[in-house]
Structure formats: C-alpha cells, structure tokens
Amino acid sequence: AVTRNIAGVWSPWVILAGTITSDPSCTSRAAGEVICAARNDDSGLTFTRLSGGVWSAPVDVNGALHSAPSCARVNATRIICVARGASGNMISATYTGAVWSAFLSAGATIVMHPPSCTTDGGGGVICVSLNNLNAIIAARYSGTGWLPAINIGGRANDRPTCSPFGVAGQVVCYARDSNSVGFANRFLGGVFGLAN
After folding, report:
1. Number of CB atoms found within 10 A of residue 89's CB
2. What span, in angstroms and rounded, lies between the C-alpha atoms of 165 and 187?
3. Which one of 5, 27, 153, 167 counts the least CB within 10 Å of its CB?
4. Do residues 115 and 127 make contact, with C-beta atoms less than 8 angstroms apart?
C-alpha cells in the first residue's frame, strides 16, 4: 500500500496489485515523480511510479535479488536500485523513466545485509553494507560504473543508513555497534577512497 502527503494532508492508502517479499525503497527521479521498488515473489524487482499525483500499476523487472533493494537518485533523469545478488555481492539496475537496465554486478565484494544507498548530490550514489566480519563496506556508483568497494572502518550489528549531507558530493552514514553505541562517518566528496 502507498500514500502521499499533499500540503500537510495524507491521502488514503492505495493498495497496489502484486506480491512483494521485502521492505520497499523509494526515491525521487525527477520533479514530481517518485519511484518505489521492492523484491517480488519471483526474486525480481517490482516497482511503481507516482507521477502527476497518480500511482502506476506495479511493473516487474527481471533480476535475482536476494535482499530488499535500496534505490537512490543518480541525477535528474535516472535512479539506481541495488540489492544483494545470488553470489552475495551487490547487483544494480538503473531506470531512466522509460527503460530499466539489466541487473549487473556492482563488484566482487560479498555483503551480508541489504545495502543502504543514497545520492551523493554530485552525480553519483554511495551504498554501504556489512561484510562477513560486520565491517562497514562502501561502494560508489559514479554515474557510469562502480568504483571498487572500500572498508570505511567500524563494525556494526545492523545495516548502516546513509543520507546526502546537502553539500554536493558529501554523504553521512550512521550505524549501531555491538555495544548499542551509535557512530557516524562522513564522505567529504572528491576522490572516493580512504583519504576522506
């Protein structure tokens, strides 16, 4: 079910057809347009689009998702959805508003949890997850391809969450460690690597 807020008033929930088997992820793609996606009962991606105040019927996209997707805006016309694939690595597909790309590998790094992705406000997307030692791993989609994943330090019990910082290229991530202590990390933009 989906809803939207118009000038401080929530619309009634709308029940959409189809079966989803994961938490959904929503992101804006263009002004006045939001895409919401989830894994479906065939392990593919199901998405719906809110445009002009109307929700589209859900549409299925082929894929072999082994987790919930995390979707984020790449630029003013394109989004990316990222999930764990069959091999445990991250896989991703982009959407232009008309066509989805095929799901492709986002690198060889194995992750144990669904990724958490956000726009970096600079034409890219940063996704974080945990490896088999619960270390926090980050990967960046540059708008044309994936940069190698890096260990950004820290260990977490749960999937970290990230948000754009509001300054082009910068992202803030937050996680909870095994002692229930929250900690944060910030990518300052520029070259993606550990020097930040």
Report:
1. 17
2. 9
3. 5
4. yes
140 — phi, psi (to 5°)? -125, 130
- Average pLDDT across each block of 10 residues of the chain; the chain has 196 residues. List them in order: 75 84 93 93 94 91 95 94 95 94 92 93 92 91 93 88 88 88 87 65
Q: Determine the Cα–Cα distance for residues 60 and 43; give it in Å rounded to an integer.
A: 10
Query: Quick one: pLDDT at residue 139?
Result: 94
Q: Which two tokens stand for residue 117?
A: 């992705």
**Look-up: residue for tokens 């232009």?**
96
- Find residue 162's DSSP bridge partners: 173
Contact call for residues 126 and 115 (beta carbons, < 8 A):
no
Gap between the Cα atoms of 90 and 83, Å rounded: 6
Instruction: Identify the bridge partners of residue 47 per DSSP, sorted by sequence position.
Output: 37, 59
3-state helix, strand, coil in the chain (%, to 5): 0, 50, 50
User: Which residues in the chain belong to E strands, given as ranges?
Assistant: 5-6, 9-10, 25-30, 33-39, 45-51, 54-55, 59-61, 70-75, 78-84, 89-95, 104-110, 116-119, 125-130, 135-141, 150-155, 161-164, 171-176, 182-187
Quote the tokens at residue 131. 């490896």
